Amino acid sequence: MELFDLNRLGKLEKGLFVERVNRFTGLCRIGSNIYTCHIADTGRLKEILTEGREIILVKNRPELKTDYRLVSARMEDGWVLVNTSIHSRIGLEAIKKGILGFYPERIKSEVKFGESRIDYLIDDDTFVELKGSNLLLDGRCLFPDAPTVRGVKHINELVRAVKEGYKAYILIMGLRDCSCFSPNIQLDPDFSRAFFEALRSGVKYSGFKIKIMEDGKIILSGKMPLCQS
Q: Which InterPro entries does its entry note (predicted)?
């Protein structure tokens, strides 16, 4: 099932990653030339953005500060999406195609609730917050790969929504070829604690995996259950 086509972003070009200059900028090599590239994913990505890693880029408009946008990187288990700016579009398509177990009639994006903006409001009664997991460890997809105060805040808002009579989901999109999902307890115990407390409070979990094909199409590759231990 196709969820997105990276070719919609522009011409896809392959190159090699050189180094990360700062949170949003890296250097990449295409042929014999070095270019700047925008990194939309602000996670650590230490296992992914290594020197010499094969990457896919899209050329930026001339007026922008960097030459290219970083889209994905090739890992041992396949291409991994490293551009969070398109997560919401992929998640929206997955929801439309029934990933939550039902087919919505109406979906609103970036809906204000409390002190946050939640990714989706479905049929006016169901909030959904989407998170992308690009960290693979021992066959498990983990989130986050860096401590996230914002992520904890979003989960707490979902708990509040349930208390006010809404339904709510934490929707995790697995970007790696993993067997299950687990919060990254060692790296961010606060997020992990909030995650499990939310489930006990009535927030539901749903997870799915995506795969980037060689032609740039992103497909649904299966459900992603919670790890049991």
A: SfsA (IPR005224), SfsA_C (IPR040452), SfsA_N (IPR041465)
Share of the chain above pLDDT 90, in %: 97
**Token pair belonging to 202:** 């009535």
Per-residue pLDDT of 88-144, as tens digits, reads 999 999 999 999 999 999 999 999 999 899 999 999 999 999 999 999 999 999 999
Structure tokens that stand for 51 in this block? 């020197």
Domains of the chain with bracketed CATH: 2-79 (2.40.50.580), 84-223 (3.40.1350.60)
Q: What torsion, rounded to 10 degrees, do the Cα atoms 15, 21, 23, 28 define?
A: -10
Q: Residue 108 is encoded by which pair of tokens?
A: 């609103």
Structure tokens at 52: 């010499």
What is the Cα–Cα distance from 24 to 195, expressed in whole angstroms?
27
Quote the CA–CA distance of 9 and 58 in Å, as a whole number: 7
What angle in degrees, to the nearest 10, is found between the helix axes of 189-200 and 149-163? 10
Strand partners, 141: 136, 181
HSE at residue 169, side-chain half, CA atoms within 13 A, is 22
> What's the predicted TM-score (pTM) here?
0.95
Neighbouring C-beta atoms of residue 74, cutoff 10 Å: 16
